Amino acid sequence: MKSILITGCNRGLGLGLVKVLLGLPTARPTHIIATYRDPQKAQELLELAKQHSNIIPLQFDLKNFDRYEAFAKDVEAVVQGAGLNVLFNSAGISPKSTRLNFTRQDDLVETFVTNTVAPIMMTKAFVPLLRKAADSNADAPVGPHRACIVNMSSILGSIGANSDGALYGYRTSKAALNAATKSMSIDLKANKIMAVAMHPGWVKTDMGGSKAPLTVEQSCNGMVKTLLALNESHNGGFLQYDGKTLPW
């Protein structure tokens, strides 16, 4: 895995993934391209980038859809003709409204734009670079060492596992992302590009809260280990951070 692009790296799981990739004893990516929106809220990422030349922080607003094509060209300039091995759509939000009677239209729309629309449009923009990586690594098996899309999902997006209700914006946006991931896995299979949805677990982040059982480091260590072990058999799957298959 020579290159990986991770969205939403100013804090939380995105930043945690960058740190774990940096600490890999072997197979450390040549390019860890990490997006952030606000420099004031991404100081730790920017400091890490000063210390490690393989971290390339790029300021980008995922809601600025008019800039996706230009952003893909920025990334192409970094990977210099080799293509992009892994697109990790990590950025996401959770609305404050949860129960049906408190659910608001603007919360639903904002959540869908960030959690569903942005990963789909980001994937669309980067298919050419993913295809280039897949073609350039024709001897490598299907997976992250060739070309792979990972969409950060959640068990809360599972319809089969929903026994508690509520959380309308978050659940529906992640269920929709799961459906999109499955379609990507079918549409891009002929190009040797695989796609999976991944649940990071319940993690101690601003979104997950202090009662969560997993630390960011534990979750991200598991996700990177699972990512590196992906192969063609996982294509179109819904996996937990530790590799366990989850119900749709």
From TrEMBL:
Keyword Methyltransferase attributed: no
GO cellular component terms, A-Z: cytoplasm
Keywords tagged on the record: NADP, Oxidoreductase
InterPro entries registered for this protein in UniProt: Fungal_SecMetab_SDRs, NAD(P)-bd_dom_sf, SDR_fam
Domain of life: Eukaryota
Pfam families to which the protein is assigned, alphabetical: adh_short
CDD domains for the chain: carb_red_sniffer_like_SDR_c
Gene3D superfamilies: NAD(P)-binding Rossmann-like Domain
An annotated Gene Ontology molecular function: carbonyl reductase (NADPH) activity
Keyword Oxidoreductase: yes
Protein family per UniProt: Belongs to the short-chain dehydrogenases/reductases (SDR) family.
Name the record gives this protein: Short-chain dehydrogenase
Provenance organism: Anopheles atroparvus (European mosquito)
